[in-house]
Design a protein that fits this description.
- There is one protein chain.
- With about 260 residues, this protein is mainly alpha-helical.
- The chain has one domain: Phosphatidylinositol 3-kinase Catalytic Subunit, Chain A, Domain 5 (Orthogonal Bundle).
- It has ten helices and eight strands.
- The strands form three sheets. It has a three-stranded antiparallel β-sheet with strand order 1-3-2, covered by helices on one side. Strands 4-5-6 form a three-stranded antiparallel β-sheet.
- β2 (about 40-45) and β3 (about 50-55) form a beta hairpin.
- α2 packs across α3 and α6 crosses α9 (about 230-245).
- It is globular.
- The chain starts with a strand and ends with a helix.
Length: about 260
């Protein structure tokens, strides 16, 4: 196992989020649904310090977009698909299946916990197709804004699902994309069955004093996202609408491009 020591960040929130992802994954696995999550190891060892597991054979979406699409790769639909084909010659169908399943899992997981700061350096993809998220410094709906522009919203949808991700599955008219939508809705409804347990878990973590989980009011975002008063059919329609909004969000791609320019 490769491990990185990190200093300067409160890794307790990362550790908490990864633990929640494992809880969600266990719920799905118990229902016979393997969404190929990658909840890597993380442990806070002291004040703003800790250790993180490095996932081998993985690259950031930013690196994939520039590597497969050049300077303006973030605005193109093809880079992720090219990346999967490059690393899975003769077995691309399995890689696309892994990608589709992991996209569904992380769309639902990040939607529920309100994961913010989702630029293309915080989302990675393994050679085998598994997509996963890193860096959980902003949760429970604390999304990025630009104070200099009067609180301009950099993140306009509650999870990341771009046209490039849809293209990697074969496009919106493909069977894989339709399966992705079905998996998202089913996964969301399975988690809603355990909604009260999740709320209790977050409430138990309030005394830890993490930056964005200091009181019961902070948990209201989670409660709202679970839509506990809705039927499964109503919740599925809500999530399908969120998928449509995410894949149509042109600004997300522009923000990714600007982030790439800034950090290149």
């Amino acid at each position: 196992m490769l491990v990185m020591f990190k200093a300067g960040d409160d890794l307790r929130q990362d550790q908490m989020t990864l633990q929640i992802f494992r809880v969600l994954e266990n719920i799905w696995l118990a229902e016979g649904m393997n969404l190929r999550l990658t909840p890597y190891g993380c442990i806070a060892t002291g004040d703003e310090m800790g250790m993180l597991e490095i996932v081998p054979d993985s690259e950031t979406i930013a690196a994939i977009e520039t590597g497969q699409g050049g300077t303006f790769g973030s605005l193109q639909s093809t880079p992720i698909r090219k990346y999967l084909e490059l690393h899975n010659k003769g077995n691309v169908d399995q890689a696309i299946d892994y990608f589709m399943r992991s996209c569904a899992g992380y769309c639902v997981a990040t939607y529920i916990v309100g994961l913010g700061d989702r630029h293309n350096d915080n989302i990675l993809c393994c050679h085998d197709g598994r997509l996963f998220h890193i860096d959980f410094g902003h949760v429970l709906g604390n999304f990025k804004t630009v104070a200099a522009l009067g609180g301009f919203k950099r993140e306009r949808t509650p999870f990341v699902f771009t046209k490039g991700m849809a293209f990697a599955m074969g496009g919106k008219s493909s069977d894989e994309y339709k399966r992705f939508v079905e998996l998202c809705c089913a996964a969301f409804n399975f988690i809603r069955l355990h909604g009260e347990e999740l709320v209790t878990l977050f409430r138990l973590m309030v005394p830890a004093g993490m930056p964005e989980l200091t009181c019961d009011e902070d948990i209201q975002y989670l409660v709202d996202q679970l839509h506990l008063g809705k039927t499964d059919e109503e919740a599925s329609r809500i999530f399908q609408a969120e998928i449509n909004a995410a894949v149509s969000d042109t600004y997300r791609r522009i923000d990714n491009m600007l982030h790439t320019f800034k950090h290149s």
